[in-house]
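Ticket #4471: complex job returned nothing on first submit. Input attached below:
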Amino acid sequence: MWTITRLRLKRDRRGVSNIIVVVLSLVIIVAIIANIILWSYEMNQLDWEKMKEDMSITNVERVTHSSWFVAQSEYTVNVGSHISGTYTVTQAVDGQYERFRETLPATTSQWEYAESLSESSSSSTSFAEKVRLTFTPSSVGDWLVIITFQARHTNTGDSFEVRGQLDDDSAKIICLPNQEPEINDPTREYRTFGHFRVFQDLSASEHHIDVDYRTQDFGTTMYIKNVRIVAIQIEDIDNVKNAYAEYENQVSNPGSGFTDYAEATITPTDDNKKYLVIGCAEVQPSTWSSYYSEARISVDDTSYYPEEAPTGVYFRSTTMDLADWFPLMTSAVVTLSSGSHTVAYQLRGASYVDFRRIRIFVMRLDDLYTYEYVRDGSETSTTSTSWQTKSTLSFTSSAADYLILSTMSGQLDTDGSSFQNRFTIGGASQIDHFEEQSDGSYRSMQFAAIKTLAAETQTFKTEYRTLSSFDVARVKASSIIAIKKPSGTSDGRLDVKGNFVVDMSTYPLDSIRTLEIQLRYMADDAGEKWYLKAYNWSSLTYSDSGFNSTLGHTPTTGWDYYAVNLTDEWQNYVHDNGTIHVKFVDEGADSNQTTIDIDFLGVRAKIDGTRFTFENEGALTSHLVSLWIINSTNHQRYDINVFVNSAETTTYLRADISLPEGEHTVKVVTERGNTAVYSGS
Amino acid sequence: MVKSMRNILRNRRGITPVLSSLLLMVIAVAAMSIAITATYVITDNLHDTMGERFIVEDVWFTTGKISIYIRNVGKVSIKIAAVYVNHTSQSFTPLKLEEDKHGWLNVTYSWSSNSVYHINVVTNGGTKVVDYYTSPS
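Support reply: We reran it on our side without changes. The output follows.
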């Protein structure tokens, strides 16, 4: 068959050509028709979709302001404290609030100080006055008095006595230590001592504090130097921001376990604030036997703050004179949470040990004082006869008075040899504790003074050394605390900052007329005004310059609205990315610690914009591409890019489109070519 | 080799069929090229004509002219070929719009207020949009 067909084709070649021509023609015709049909189908689909589209404008309205832009991160408390709540509850007016509190009102900043640094001696058994601090409180109030000094006696077996008291009143003795040195070189031994007491409700009349000295053994000589009296008026003891307890009576047989003798209860209202704690006592032996005694500051008995409070600050006295009273004192900075705490000066010792004048004082530092401190509880040692640094406190002081407290416990490993501890300011020795070791126990160096510092870098150090390189000198529990005298201008203050971001994509800068800040808050006292301020990106400061009101707002103690308008100065207060920093601050220092509840704080833009409502009643999603605002004088077109799903209604806000006054027409055009029209006036 | 060439030149009877075959092939290729080109031209023109769509978004009567805002919603570019106002051709600024583009077509015309005008916009492809528009009072 195949052979026959091949032979026929070979014979009749014209027939093949005709077939090829016909087939090729058919191919071309089919291609043309297919192209037309397909294209026609596509365009018909376009037309069909256009016919199915049903878009309408249901409403067009003027918009005069944006929605509220609220805080998206936690507020920063520059001054004052955060009490409760989070920034999220300030995002709506709903009665839920975030609470802040002002710093504590200023302590009355009357500080008094007297010192006599030169060496004096006495061979009399009658008291002689070394230094007197005379002062008159500006008002009735509570006072903290701290006395530190160095004293020595020329003879072993003989004692000296130093008395610090207020107004020559035996009931107001601050300290009354007497000591019998046990050294071979009485010309070099010079121990340091310290003690304190709080006097409550001191009258606003003249008072004096004396430090007197004498020898207790006729015909012998004692020496005294570096006597310092610090008197600071403190806030009235309220057991919230400060607390004080004293146990003046003699305690015998304190027991082998630590026991609270002076015990103060304090109930801070704020969390995690720093407090200064000072404790002191006088101790004496009641037998000729060797004895031991120890004292320490404790917080909540066993709940110590190891990084702050000295859990092992440790004093041991081995004076052998039954009549001797050896002063112990230590200070620390502790962190207290809100709620009730027991802060105590704990004592323990041999059964034949007596204590008296046991005192504990707690005073809040945070928000009240500017302070610096350093503490090193670890034990370090040296065999060097050169001064070794134990602790260094470096900071830049203001030109102001500072209360400076320093303690350090020292010891030598060899009885009969000596060591030295000292406290220096800028390398200059302020007090130099020199002691011959007699019993292997630790003795403490004490320093307290009020110094007027310049505005410069300060370097305070505790240092130690041995007098012989064969002996090992050890120190521990070293602390230095510097507290600036309050200026009275930064107390009872609150300064809260929040960050807000205006949506620049919806409200471009050139569409914003101005900005408004609104606050809903409640203050628990109406004694001072409150201000809203914003960060000025031009002057780089917080300001209310240009605001419609710079007079602040006086609260009513109920819920109040306080709003400000930034007028035409608003652009200085908004960053190009829409960020605006808002501050809520009080009028200034006052005597009340105000609590502020913020229910709402927000920023919004004043605009002259338009909100359009589009409704798609068609079966297909519509893409709106063109918007017309037409009135008798202008036909203004805007590009838009809005998709409206089938059977949905969408609002579209344009801050930059201002509706014309009078009759106007709004048209919207879809991508498919349909137009919806809205007439308004 | 030389001998083979001499044989081919000497045997002239085989040349004519070869030449005729080549000639036919050239003619066939040329005919196909013409046919394909014609197909392309025909379909392209149809394509352009069928793919044209445009709308008039707005008509704004301003002093001495009528501005017509045109949007190309078709699948091909358009070029406005003529504008008729009340069936009379008017001069206008040339306007060519690519796909999804839009722009003003300014027609020079002294219109009267509060009158109805029949405006017909025609493209090169013959697509037209015709409507009545009332001038402002």
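The first strand of chain A starts at residue 55 and ends at 65. Closing as resolved unless it happens again.
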